[in-house]
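**Paired protein data**
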Amino acid sequence: MFGSSKSSRDGQLVVDALIGNQVVIRGDVEFSGGLYVEGRIHGKVIAQEGASAATLTLAEHGVIEGEIRAQVVVISGRLDGDVHATEKVELTPSARVNGNVHYQVVEMNAGAQLNGRLIHASAPMQALPSPESGEAGDGKGDTAARRKLAEAMA
């Protein structure tokens, strides 16, 4: 049922731990490798620091009530909380997410429901230069820029 010799990058599902459909966990879960959740988790699900290829798969009838942090996250069930994926998030047609999705790459299939925001985890935003250190220097360029803007809007 579960592939064991190929990584999830090869298109095969790798499962190192399985939380069955009748299991309820109350508390945080820390994992590495592949975690497949068919049951219910009330708490955070977080990949260990430095764990490479940590993949969380939430099955169609699985439920997580808490935050998820992993490299790859595949959601087919219900999530009440935010997702932070450093590589990829996949929302299948049966996914129901109530929370924000922070991603590098996102794959959202028709039928998936997201009640929250998609937030791309890009390079940190650079601050604008201060008015004193910009090209305007003495503020004269600022007046010219304002004039051009006013002309464009008129």
The CA atoms of residues 17 and 35 lie 5 Å apart.
